[in-house]
Every structure is written in C-alpha cells, then in structure tokens.
C-alpha cells in the first residue's frame, strides 16, 4: 500500500510514524513533510502543496490512501476532487468541512441539532456589532467566521477592547476576508478538552480524550499558540463528562451529519469546555489536532491504517478500537519569539538517547544536520503508568535536546 500524508508539522510526523507501523504499507509520501518525516524509513518528502499538483501526484503514483493533516485544503475541497478521480482520501467533503471553515455555519448547525454551545449572534455590519457590544456582559468572545490560522478568536474584557477587535476584524480586514462576518459569543469559564474522533457517516468513534495547552507561557499566560503541549487522556474527562459529551454533543452531531446529507468519512475533532453548567461544544475541527495527535496516536493499540480503511469503507461499527493503558505527555519546544517573530536556521542537537518519541515540526534536514525552520520546532511524547511519570520523562528528555533560543513550557500536564 502507498499512503500520502499532506502537511508538514509535528502532527504529520506522528501520522507518518503511525501509518509506517502497518506492514502492508510499503511507501509513505509526505507533502511537504519536515526533517522528521524525512528520517522515517518508509517516507519520502515531496515538495508540492496545491490540490491539482497533489491530485496528479496521487494518480501518477497510484496512491491507495491520502490523509490530509490541516484544514485549508479540506475547506478548499480536496476530498471532492480526489474522490471524483477515484482516489481514496480521509476527510469531509467541502460542504461538510464548513463545520470548521465557517464558525457561523457551525454555530447554526449546533443550534439546529440541539448541541449544547455558548449563546451567540452573527454580524456582518461593524456598526450593528458595536451597538450590540454596548449592552453585553463582559468578558465576551469575538470570532472571525472564516479560517484565520488559529488567530481568529479574541476574548475581550471590556467594551473598548471589543470595539477595537471589531475594527481589526471587520474594517481593517486583518484576516483578509475571514473576519468580514463575525460571531459574538458568550464567554464560558471552565476546562477545555479535545476529543479527536473518526466518522464514516454511520457512527462517530471517539478517541481517548486529550488536553492542549494553547498559551505560550506557564500557567496559561500570554498569547495563544498552535499548542505548546498535550496530554492524553485528559484528567478532567471523567466518565460523567464523557457521558454528557456523548449524549449532548456527539450523538446530535451524527444526526446533523446524516440529516444534512454530508459526505463525511474523516476526522472530526470536538473542542469542548467542561463548565459548572455542564459540557459545551466550542468548535468542530475537520482534522486532527496538533499537538493532540502526537499525544493520542502513540497510545492507540489498534492499527491506525486499518482504522482509516475501515472508515473509508463505512465499516467503523465493526472496528474494535483499542487503546494502551497509561498516559502520554507531549511537550513542544519552540523558537524564541514564537508565536511572534522568530529566527530560524539554528542547529538542533541531541545529547543522548531519548526515552520518549521525538516528533519534529519546524525542523529541516540540511546536509545531514537538523536545523530549526519554524515556530514550533519539535515535540517529545513520553509515556508512563501515571501522568506524573510521563511528564517527568518528557521533561528529562527535553534536557537532552538543544538549539539556540529553545523555549518550552514547564507545566505541561500539571494538574492543579
Ligand atoms: P476556537 O478557534 O473556537 O477553538 O477558539 C480558540 C480558543 O478560544 C478556544 O480553544 C478557547 O480557549 C477560546 N474560546 C473560544 N470560544 C470560547 C468561549 N465561548 N468561551 C471561552 N473561551 C473560548
Ligand atoms: N491544538 C489545537 C488544534 O490543532 O486546533
């Protein structure tokens, strides 16, 4: 079997690694990949990014399965294009990908199917939005409707900052069209969890829960990033929380997917908030999370490629998805300055053998050496019988890695 993975982050390194474990997979291509995927024995990086080029490549190389890492191509309709050409690809159709691609659409979907979510209003005129803000209770959440590379959500503490955000989103158009329409949403206080899942349109099969750490600094301070670390399972996802999630979020989502006749054979990722008033859905993503994937996939006991095939065949109901016992902790090391401006090109060295798994992200191979090439450079996922053990190993491993300006949080997986 030949598999094509699309993307270049730590998530894609974890995907290449998981897919390579299947003995029927003889070759994996990663577009564009990174220094880590380059080092995987079955994998070859290919330097193409556009849907048409990827399609030609997949046809020419007779790719059996394609897995799309990030959301942009899903929202642009890569799944429809590949399917029209007889190729198997994991992901939602363009129509279904609106669950991630348009927050106004996904909130409307949640409302229609009775899925518990924060109260909200949609606006496409700045003046009307600002009038509305005058009578809101604060804090309030403002979201760009479209994709904004993880930067389209701001939590505003008062009217002035909310008004400034409306100005940035709608008038200054900082997200190039994605913020012309906005959502103003009730602020939810609680603990977040990420539930990655797979669906074949008949059932949604949730993975073990996980927890991202979005802010750059310890104690959840500073600006949001793509994610500075993740743990699995999420200690706040008790059986009561998971039951509530199943009943009030997962099940009505499946009903919605079916009633809207969405063609959805792919990943569906639920971002939830566990509050005093119950479990709320914050958002859907149509793809795996980064760095949640690096924490979750290595704990999967079942074969990931077989799971993907089962979803593509519409046979998930017969798939016995099994997990290893224990905990994982993935700590991300970033370039100094991230998520703002940062320098790249520094050599990455490893002083001794790691106990955990190294997943590279913004790192490339240059003449046999690894160099930094992005904001989030790498992650180490460690495992333990307890979360505390997994954390200790991950942090001991981090001390064995060095690059100039290396920064990581010291409290990933610390439970208060
Ligand atoms: P999203 O892109 O919708 O996941 O939002 C990014 C982040 O903003 C989430 O992971 C939360 O941390 C935060 N957030 C989004 N919506 C809310 C909300 N209604 N209340 C509190 N925090 C939120
Ligand atoms: N780590 C959150 C995301 O991938 O959206």
In short:
The chain has 416 residues and is an alpha+beta fold.
Task: Report on this structure.
This protein has 13 helices and 25 strands. It is 29% helix and 30% strand. The strands form six sheets. Strands 1, 2, 3, 4, 5, 10, 11, 16 and 17 form a nine-stranded mixed sheet that branches. Strands 12, 15, 18, 20, 23 and 25 form a six-stranded antiparallel sheet that branches. With 416 residues, the protein is α+β, with helices and mostly antiparallel strands. The chain has helices at residues 10-20, 35-39, 51-60, 71-75, 78-84, 98-101, 103-112, 126-134, 159-171, 239-259, 292-296, 304-312, 387-398, and strands spanning 2-7, 27-32, 43-46, 65-68, 89-92, 120-123, 140-144, 153-156, 182-186, 191-199, 204-206, 211-212, 215-217, 221-224, 229-232, 264-275, 278-285, 327-335, 349-350, 357-360, 363-366, 369-372, 376-384, 401-402, 406-407. The relative contact order is 0.14. A hairpin with a 3-residue loop joins β13 and β14 (221-224). It has four domains: 2-91, 3-Layer(aba) Sandwich (Rossmann fold), CATH 3.40.50.20; 120-186, Dna Ligase, domain 1 (2-Layer Sandwich); 191-318, 2-Layer Sandwich (D-amino Acid Aminotransferase, Chain A, domain 1); 327-398, Glycinamide Ribonucleotide Synthetase, Chain A, domain 4 (Alpha-Beta Complex), CATH 3.90.600.10. The longest helix is centred in the middle third of the chain and has 21 residues, at 239-259. The mean pLDDT is 96. The radius of gyration is 21 Å and the shape is globular.
């Amino acid at each position: 079997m030949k598999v094509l993975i699309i993307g270049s982050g730590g998530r894609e390194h974890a995907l290449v690694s998981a897919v390579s474990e299947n003995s029927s997979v003889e070759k994996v291509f990663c577009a564009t990949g990174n220094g880590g995927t380059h080092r995987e024995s079955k994998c070859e990086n290919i330097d193409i990014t556009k849907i048409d080029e990827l399609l030609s490549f997949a046809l020419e190389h007779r790719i059996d399965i394609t897995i799309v890492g990030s959301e942009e191509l899903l929202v642009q309709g890569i799944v429809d294009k590949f399917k029209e050409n007889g190729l198997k690809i994991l992901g939602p159709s363009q129509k279904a990908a609106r669950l991630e691609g348009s927050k106004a659409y996904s909130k409307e979907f949640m409302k229609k199917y009775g899925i518990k979510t924060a109260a909200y209003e949609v606006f496409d005129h700045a003046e009307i939005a600002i009038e509305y803000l005058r009578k809101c209770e604060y804090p309030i959440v403002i979201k760009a409707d479209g994709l904004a590379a993880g930067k389209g959500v701001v939590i505003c503490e008062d009217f002035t900052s909310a008004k400034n955000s409306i100005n940035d989103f709608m008038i200054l158009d900082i997200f190039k069209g994605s913020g012309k329409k906005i959502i103003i949403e009730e602020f939810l206080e609680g603990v977040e969890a990420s539930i990655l899942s797979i669906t074949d349109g008949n059932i949604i099969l949730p993975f073990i829960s996980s927890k991202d750490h979005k802010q750059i600094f310890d104690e959840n301070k500073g600006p949001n990033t793509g994610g500075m670390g993740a743990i699995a399972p999420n200690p706040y996802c008790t059986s009561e929380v998971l039951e509530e999630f199943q009943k009030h979020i997962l099940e009505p989502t499946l009903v919605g997917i079916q009633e809207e006749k969405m063609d959805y054979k792919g990943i569906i990722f639920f971002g939830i908030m566990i509050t005093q008033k119950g479990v709320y859905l914050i958002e859907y993503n149509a793809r795996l999370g980064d760095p949640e994937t690096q924490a979750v996939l290595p704990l999967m006991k079942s074969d990931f490629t077989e799971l993907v095939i089962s979803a593509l065949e519409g046979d998930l109901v017969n798939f016995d998805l099994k997990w290893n016992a224990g905990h994982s902790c993935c700590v991300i090391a970033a370039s100094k300055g991230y998520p703002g401006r940062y320098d790249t090109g520094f050599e990455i060295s490893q002083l001794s053998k790691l106990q955990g798994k190294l997943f590279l992200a913004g790192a490339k191979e240059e003449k046999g050496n690894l160099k930094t090439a992005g904001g989030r450079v790498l992650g180490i996922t460690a495992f333990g019988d307890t979360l505390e053990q997994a954390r200790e190993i991950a942090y001991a491993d981090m001390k064995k890695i060095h690059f100039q300006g290396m920064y990581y949080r010291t409290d990933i997986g610390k439970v208060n």
